[in-house]
Amino acid sequence: MTYQHAAAYFVDTSQVHRLQKVDALFDEGWIQNFIFNHPESLPIDEIEPAFGPLLPVCRELRTKAGFADIIFINPLGLITIVECKLWKNPEARREVIGQILDYAKELAGMSYEEFERIALASQGGSIPSLYQIASTADDTLDEQTFIDRVTRNLKRGRFQLLIAGDGIREGVEQITSFLQQYGNLNFTLALVEYSLFKQPGEGSNGFFVMPRILARTYEIERAVVRIEGNGIAVTSPASLQVSSKFQGQRTTVSEQVFIENLQLSPQVKERFHAMLQQAKQQGMYTQPGSNSLILKTDTQDLNLAIFKPNGTFYNTGIASRTNDFGLPEIGERYLVELAGLIPGAYCNRSKNRFDWSVKTSDGNPKIENLLAVQDQWFDLVASVIEELSAKYNKSLS
Description:
Elements: E1 9-11, E2 16-18, E3 20-22, H1 28-37, H2 44-47, E4 55-63, E5 66-73, E6 79-86, H3 90-108, H4 112-122, H5 130-135, H6 143-156, E7 159-166, H7 170-182, E8 187-198, E9 208-216, E10 224-228, E11 231-235, H8 253-260, H9 266-281, E12 284-289, E13 292-297, E14 303-307, E15 313-314, H10 318-324, H11 328-341, E16 346-348, E17 357-359, H12 367-372, H13 374-396
Parallel strand pairs: 6-7, 7-8
Antiparallel strand pairs: 1-2, 3-8, 4-5, 5-6, 8-9, 10-11, 12-13, 13-14, 14-15, 16-17
C-alpha cells in the first residue's frame, strides 16, 4: 500500500479552491528550516505531550555518528531529535532509521556538560546556556533542577526521535512496526510527513503546509535498537537502562515522566504506577493532559480521574459527558459512590455540570485516598461501564 494525501481544499465565503500538491520546492534544507523555526507544526500532543513545548536548541548537532538535523529541549529536560529526509529510494528510507538511533546512542553516552558544550557550539554560541533556553518557557524553573533532569534523561536514553519528510512510504512504517514488536525502546520514535499545497494559478503566492503522523512507537523499556546493514539488532548498554522500578512495566514516556515528578514518596509512586497497570488490564488507558495525567475508559471515553503532580486528583468532565448521552444519572452515581469510598469526601455539584467532581474539606482528594480503596474503586468503575454500555446500546436499538 502506498500512502497518499487526498486532495486538499481551501474554502472561503464565496469559493472552494482545490489545492495543488507542490514537490519542486521541497528539499531537506527547507523542511529543516521550517521545523526549526515552527516547532509547533510538529504534532507533539499526539505523539508524546511530555516533550512539549519544543524549544529550539540548534541545527546540525555534531556527534561521532554524524550531524543530527535538529535538537529541541523543554523545561523537563526532555530532548527531541529530528531528522529531515526526502524519500527517494529504499536505501535512504532504511538508513535514516539507523542514523537517528545512532544519534540517540551517542547522546545517551554524554554528560550534561558535554551535551551543552556541543549544542551551544552547534548553534554558534548565541545563547549562553541550555537553562536559559528552557527558562523561556518556565520562568520559575530552577537551574539545578533542570540540569538534574537533563542528566537523568541523557543517562536513561530518554528521547523523542522524529523523522520528518515528504512522501514517506510503507517501507519505513513497516520497519517502525517491526521495532515496536520488540517493546524494548527507551524512546519514542515517530514518522511525520509534511506535504505542501498551493492554490492553482500562476499568480498564487504562499503555501499550505500539512503535517501528519504516519507511525509511532508506544512503549519504552531499556534497550537500543540498531539497524546494521540489512538486519536489525537489539542491544542493552548500561548507559540506556532505566530505573529498576520501571523495568518490565509498559508505559509511555509521558506517563513515566509524570510519575517521576509526582510529589509523593517513592513507595506511593510505585503503588500508583502498579494501579495504573492494573487499570489498563481492565480496559482503561492514560492520556497526558496539561500538567496532568487522565485515566479514561475505552467505553465512551469517560474521564475517571485526572491526576495532578501535587498528588491529588479530580473528576471534571464525566458528569457532563454522561449527560450528553442522555444518561446523567450514571455520571452522578459514579461521583457519589466514589465520594462514599473516601472518608470526608462528597460530590460537589457546581452550576456548570462539567465541573462536578469529588471534593474533600481540603479541596481535591489525594491519590493515596484512591489507593486505599483501589479494589472497591475498580469494582465501581466496572459497574458504571456495564450500566453505561447496556443503557446506551438500548437507546440506540
